[in-house]
Amino acid sequence: MNTIKRREFLKFLGVTGGSLYLTTHLSGCLLTSKSKNNPAWAISPSDADQVILSKELNYKQFIAWNDKINETESFGTNNDYIAFIQDSNNEAYLWVNHEHADPHKLSEYKVLEVGRTKEQVDKEQLAVGGSVLKIKKQNGQWQIIENHPSNLRVTAKTKIPFAGNIKIQGKDHAIGTFANCAGGVTPWNTILTCEENYHHGYGEVEFDDNGNRKLKRKKKSLNWHLFYDHPPEHYGWVVEVDPKTGKAKKHTSLGRFAHESATTVLENNKVVVYSGDDKDNECLYKFISDTPDSLESGTLYVADLKLGRWLPLDITKNPHLKKKFKTQLDMLIRTREAAHFVGASELDRPEDIEIHPNTKEVYVALTNNKTKGNAHGSILKIKEKNNDHTSLEFQHESFLTGGEDSGFSCPDNLAFDKTGNLWFTTDISTKLLNNFPYNSFKNNGLFVVPVKGKYAGLPIQVASAPVGAEFTGPCFSKDYETLFLSVQHPGEGAESLSELKSHWPDGGNNIPRSAVLTIQGPLLKKLMS
Ligand code: FEO
Ligand code: CA
Ligand code: CA
């Protein structure tokens, strides 16, 4: 990096001097995809307003925002996490998260000078949450079964009880779920959907030393509280949904923070759930249930990477916590504070988590961390002691580091296929896409890291997203012949019809729409043979 570029880079990162951390980070890149020739099935970065795929893959648009899913409801916006639950031979349930509402887009850009109306807020609330779709495979392609009674929506208006008869702010239920980012699937085939940036809806609460609560709201947010004054403590949880019935409940046991994902595995008759808190300098969590069939009771732990230990966040097991929090529920509502209080490791935006199907190692996407001069992020690997997910000790190492040499930046969602190839998507934030220091990466992409062969261990780009979009929710069908993939927020950031940046997928002058793709092709078979 020449001196001018380096100076610009430091300025961008808000670093005033040549910090040691930055120097070591920049020189610490691991494998380099550019040091070897890429395979013929790789693609180059692109800034085109299209989905561009490896020549050995093809895609179909499966469903997009506003498509009807039954007589009264439509597919939501900004699709993210996807879960595939096989039902019978050729049928399955597909769950899709709908993360955030873009007020401009949802109101056809006719808004905002005078503030939003209740009708506009209602529209935003119905566009987020999640969708259940009953799907079938016909002639090798997955299709939605039209008007199937299981096609339904869960939204920011759905009444959802707290599990275990818990009451928060006097209520045994919350109204709605939103900010649904990534998630997981339980051993009993229900969905876990994670409430990530919930503070945009009804704000946040802060507590003083005596536990008195104070509401904290920012002007630049959805400000739904102006029409519906729900307590912020009702959000930021993991929500369990039965895709067969749409019945949902919010689990307080897994803590409250910007939950990215809830990656779930059964071990020693206990359910283990890994979850990251996607914010600069926030933490990595693990929940271990008491029984193999419920998440309602168990212990929440937070990672200390220096000691290689999972620290319990339980006021009965840690008397220091009892000094700060009156009850376990008080502590769970303020999980972030508890994690820092016990000395948990501050990480670089822990996002999605996946478990390697063969080695049982836990992979964690660390997207980036502006406050530490880490622009490109990395993928962390955690190895539990004795390969036991219920162990409270672990080792860790960096698996891949983002940067120009490795050819990717800002890893976000992860998925393993049946062979152990790691597929991951990137999320360079919209404002920085195609800008310094991210120019060379162009639009966000989908990458695969082959587990064997000539390209083993190298991140290879196989898809490029439309302008302003990120790919999210990569999810294989049970037969691994189809990869479901979300295209989220194409053209994000436009505030009027005259400044649309994307028209994907409909083209012409159309408003961009998030959509789910089905991806197939010989590359899937080749990599999994
Ligand atoms: Fe919703 Fe952290 O991505
Ligand atoms: Ca994400
Ligand atoms: Ca993201």
Overview of this protein structure:
- The protein has 529 residues and is mostly beta strands.
- The chain has a single domain (3-487, 500-528), classed as TolB, C-terminal domain (Neuraminidase), CATH 2.120.10.30.
- Strands 1-30-29-28-27 form a 5-stranded antiparallel β-sheet, with no helix packed on it. Strands 3, 4, 5, 6 and 7 form a 5-stranded antiparallel β-sheet that branches.
- Residues 1-35 have low confidence and may be disordered.
- Bound molecules: MU-OXO-diiron and calcium ion (CA) (2 copies).
- MU-OXO-diiron binds at residues 99, 181, 196, 260, 278, 351.
Secondary structure elements and pairings:
Blueprint: H1 3-13, H2 20-27, E1 52-53, E2 58-64, E3 79-86, E4 91-98, H3 103-106, H4 118-126, E5 129-138, E6 141-144, E7 152-154, E8 159-161, E9 173-175, E10 180-185, E11 191-195, H5 199-202, E12 204-207, E13 213-216, E14 238-241, E15 248-251, E16 263-267, E17 270-276, E18 280-282, E19 284-289, E20 298-304, E21 309-312, H6 319-324, H7 328-333, H8 335-341, E22 347-348, E23 350-355, E24 362-366, E25 378-384, E26 394-401, E27 411-416, E28 422-426, E29 445-449, E30 460-464, E31 470-476, E32 483-488, E33 515-520, H9 522-527
Antiparallel strand pairs: 1-30, 2-33, 3-4, 4-5, 5-6, 5-7, 8-9, 10-11, 11-14, 12-13, 14-15, 16-17, 17-19, 18-22, 19-20, 20-21, 23-24, 24-25, 25-26, 27-28, 28-29, 29-30, 31-32, 32-33
